[in-house]
Design goal:
The protein is of the alpha+beta class. The protein has helices spanning 3-10, 15-41, and strands at residues 46-50, 54-60, 69-74, 77-84, 101-108, 119-123, 126-132. The strands form two sheets. The chain has a four-stranded antiparallel beta sheet, with no helix packed on it. It has a three-stranded antiparallel beta sheet with strand order 3-4-5, with no helix packed on it. The longest helix has 27 residues, at 15-41.
Amino acid sequence: MSPARTFSRIWNVSPATLDELRREFDNALGSASRCVRESVGSQIPLALWEDDDRVVLELEVPGISQDDLEVQVEAGVLTVAAKRVAPEWPGTLKHNEHRHGEFLRRVRLDESLDPTSIEAELQNGVLTLAIKRRVEAQPVKVAVRVRDRESAIEPNRRPSDAPTAGPGSET
């Protein structure tokens, strides 16, 4: 049997079988795209700013009340969980683009941040979290003094290497 003849025999299937294969393929792709859409759609949108003193996160949570929000830090991970319940409407729902259900966002916190300093505020559907940096992680500005030549620090001598009174010196 020639390779061309074998190939044509494989594709010699009934239209009903082809329709069934097409439906199964569409169902498989549909469920995969639905999983991706649900995982992306259930993540709370986030904006993040930082400066020397703190990090500020803004999370969009429209239509979610304070009672349906939970903010916690565990093992260096900030978790914001929210729940938005679908309203009950009289009649038949014809079209709905509102997102309902449970939403979640996790952010790994840098070690320089102090999780006990988190301040949270909810206003106009935006949750703002401000997290201060640990004192030891904040930049320190060192003052530079001007000295005369006699009291200057020698380049190869550490301050702790200052000469001490030796034998025969007056103390």
